[in-house]
Amino acid sequence: MKLKYKNIHDPMEDCVHGVSPKDMIVLHETVSHDLPGYKDIDSVVAYLDAKDYGIHGLTDAEGNIAWAYGLGRAIFWQAGGVNVRSIGIEQVSDVMLRSPLNPVRKAIWVARNSQLRATAKLVAAVSQAHNIPLVYSDGLKPGITSHWDVSQHFKQSQGHTDCWPVHKGGYYPIYEVIYLARGYAKIGYSL
User: Fold this and answer.
1) Does the pLDDT at position 76 exceed 90?
2) Average pLDDT of the residues of the chain
3) Phi, psi (rounded to 5 degrees) for 65
4) Following DSSP, what letter does each residue of 33-86 receive, concatenated?
5) Terminal CA-to-CA distance of the chain, rounded, Å?
């Protein structure tokens, strides 16, 4: 089943810093407001492009998906320490703006069902395309990880706390995303 997404190849192409095989997906979240349609995704893409950062894919609260088609092996500056080996997926969200408390953030994320499902679909499709295992990674091994996890091991990630996993005292339901992604992979989601 072909994944439906907005192609962000063109704005991300000038942010590529080489190419490399991938064995990890890093989940991120923005600290920005949810806007209708693709406005929130377009805003994040423009911001990253202006900073010479980059991202392979994005999702938003409505379940919209964006993917930099043809740039899956691109090296983007998105998670210091693992940029060469990882694919970054940014989730547009205002969760961090709404509360500093992890239990509240967890409740907000759990309610963002459309976005979690969109992220899982994208993770499943990317996993299939790049042979990335649909298992949790602590930021060192192949699999699905968070920017928080990567920051625990690499000072280049500058102490980011986005997508801090619930099972490590945080708020982000990474195991739920992986579980859903496994189901979508069985259905055959592809890029």
Assistant:
1) yes
2) 96
3) -130, 140
4) ---STTHHHHHHHHHHHHHT---SEEE-TT--EEE-TT-TTB--SSSTTSTTTE
5) 9
Match domain 6-187 to its CATH number in 3.40.1110.10, 3.40.50.2000, 3.40.80.10, 3.40.1130.10.
3.40.80.10
Q: What's the token pair of residue 100? A: 């500093």
Judge whether 18 and 75 are in contact, CB under 8 Å. Answer: yes
Q: CB atoms < 10 A from the CB of 84, how many?
A: 13
Numbers of helices and strands, H then E, in the chain: 7, 6
CA 161/CA 145 separation, integer angstroms: 12
Residue 126 token pair: 């990317």
Give the span between the Cα atoms of 43 and 99, in whole angstroms. 22
Q: And the tokens for 25?
A: 């997906």
53's tokens = 């950062």
Q: What is the predicted pLDDT for the residue at 158?
A: 81
Return the amino acid letter for 66.
Answer: A
Query: In terms of Cα–Cα distance, which of 125, 140, 118 is closest to 23?
Result: 140
Q: CA 125: distance to chain centroid?
A: 13
* Rounded distance between C-alpha atoms, residue 131 and residue 141, angstroms: 14
Residue 155 pLDDT level (bands cut at 50, 70, 90)? confident
pTM above 0.90, yes or no: yes
